Amino acid sequence: MIELKSPAEIEMIRAAGRVVATVHAEVKAHAVAGVTLRELDEVARKVIDSAGAGSSFLGYHPRFGATPFPGVICTSVNEVMLHGLPTDYRLRDGDLLSVDCGAYVDGWHADAAVSFVVGEPKPEDLALIEATERCLAAGIEAARPGARMGDIAHAMSTVGRAAGYGMQNDFGGHGIGRAMHEEPFVPNEGVPGRGLKLTPGLVIAIEPSLMAGGRDDYRMADDGWSLCTTDSSRSAHVEHTVAITDDGPRILTVQ
Ligand code: MG
Ligand code: MG
After folding, report:
1. Phi and psi at residue 177, in whole multiples of 5°?
2. 28 C-alpha vs ligand 1 centroid, how far in Å?
3. Region 157-169: what's the mean pLDDT?
4. In the predicted model, what is the mean pLDDT of residues 203-231?
5. How far apart (Å, rounded) are the C-alpha atoms in residues 66 and 45?
6. Counting ligands in written order, which one lies closest to the CA of residue 180?
7. What whole-number distance in Å separates Cα of residue 213 and Cα of residue 105?
């Protein structure tokens, strides 16, 4: 069932979105060579705690995960595309890090992800991240009343495919509100003019991921959580929680 949100409920998600955006700013500021992923998770926990919010990720145990999720952020490094665990891995100069965070305030969830390079970036990594951000921007731009879910998906895949990157459609976006993962599914690739008609009050997380090697397949790592490229090429993932309003798309996961 798809639950439309009232303007007051959208403001509740917006409050959670501010916390998520603050987590991203703080984690990025601390993500330097030598710092461990676990230490970044600690930074995120402090932000969530001090805001009086809760973590949407901690203890989350979907069917595809081997264990309850042990952290409050996903930290996906280099060839890890999604769901990287915040381990004792120590960041190195030039690592491509994607950070995904979900938080709730008074029972309302928001979810967002960013990708960036630690230290000195390589041009090809910046190009991959920039293309992933353009995918997301195109998807958000298409998230308007009267449009269809396929329009969002097609806008994203058009950008990703034109840039020659690989994409997967198993792990995409989702409705969000009282739970982190609600209906509807928001695919990364689709047919324009098809799928759910978008109406004001629909709140969705839009989250494209791109794989530099151009392949569309991926594999599960031995840890039972991390989804990795099969060719060990790098991957980037970005996400915003977006409300569809009468005035168009409204991004809720910004400060
Ligand atoms: Mg997320
Ligand atoms: Mg999400």
Report:
1. 175, -110
2. 16
3. 98
4. 98
5. 22
6. 2
7. 39
Tell me how far apart the terminal alpha carbons of the chain are, to the nearest angstrom: 30
The reply to whether CATH 3.90.230.10 applies to domain 7-251 is: yes
In DSSP terms, which residues pair with 249 in a beta bridge? 244
Percent of the chain with pLDDT over 70: 100
Ligand nearest to the CA of 57: 1
187 in the Ramachandran plot: left (φ > 0), alpha (ψ -120 to 50) or beta?
A: beta
Q: Which two tokens stand for residue 150?
A: 């396929």
Local confidence band at 111 (pLDDT 50, 70, 90 cut-offs): very high
Q: Take residue 109 and report the two structure tokens written for it.
A: 């969830």
- Strands (DSSP E) along 46-130, which ranges? 54-55, 73-77, 80-82, 96-105, 108-117
Q: How far is CA 138 from the centre of its chain?
A: 15
CA of 62 to the centre of ligand 1 (A): 13
Tokens of 179: 């739970």
Tokens of 221: 């790592």
What does the pLDDT look like over 65-76, one tens digit per residue? 999 999 999 999
**Cβ within 8 Å of residue 255, ≥6 positions away:** 18, 21, 22, 25
- Interval between CA 238 and ligand 2 midpoint (Å): 9
Task: Please report the pLDDT score of residue 211 as a whole number.
Answer: 98
H or E stretch covering 205: strand 203-206
Q: What are the structural domain ranges in the chain?
A: 7-251
Q: In what order do the strands lie in the sheet with 218-220?
A: 80-82, 227-229, 218-220
